[in-house]
């Protein structure tokens, strides 16, 4: 999933306090008793590694048991207990929080790199998109109908995620039934946009999110769709066309964010159990909070790479290349320091 050693050690220090001072759930163990650390098959580092390895892969339990040298019963109990400890640790970790820009200063910090790259997308502070994850077919007819998506003819649980230009998630709606429309799922987000967002700032989305009221239209910027009234004047039409192109290009950041989550946590590719709602919610929250931790601690993600300042320097270099002397070009080179004066 891309955690470096420093981030893993930081996570382990917090995980250790919970693992060593709580018992593992079993029918024959007193939950308030003294933990028997010497009799456990894995220590805190092993348990954390087991949970992270399980999250980031699609391997069967049998292979996981062979890798960590534990029996099926031990593996199942350690995974269940370790996930609860990891979720509690991430909920308290300052680097794993979801931060909505409630102040003008924070919103301006997010909107500046977007506006710098796409001049027509003024005062846009983030990107919005939906995510569908596969769910197993339930024997219960009511549960099956709740997760069945008639548009795709499949069973899903739906999520809505809002990303910032640095790749982190600022708002998440997780584990909604797949049969619900995006407008219904996004109601808490609409309230967040209207009540807790600085005036004048907007979020970029696709055409799947309805914008019926004028207040919502002022808060969500989406490309024009079929049936919209287009301007008659050629200048206005050309501007709208350019705006649409920039919107489609900017929305790629939401796709990068979704890909980062699905690509890093392979367990999300496996169909989720339809009847265990709490398990689904915990798994999705752990994945999203680990994504936050990786973006802020490790700092490697596609969105941040695109919007960081080095790309602006390269654009300036390409634009002014024909007017620059060799010494100026050499000063802009990012790799010359590796050649010991040869460049």
TrEMBL record:
Q: Which residues form the DDE Tnp4 domain?
A: 128-292
Q: What keywords does the record list, in alphabetical order?
A: Metal-binding
Q: Which residues, by range, are in coiled-coil regions?
A: none
Q: Which cofactor does it need?
A: a divalent metal cation
Identify a single GO molecular function assigned to this protein: metal ion binding
Pfam families named among the record's database cross-references: DDE_Tnp_4
Q: What PANTHER family does its record include?
A: DDE TNP4 DOMAIN-CONTAINING PROTEIN
State what protein this is by name: DDE Tnp4 domain-containing protein
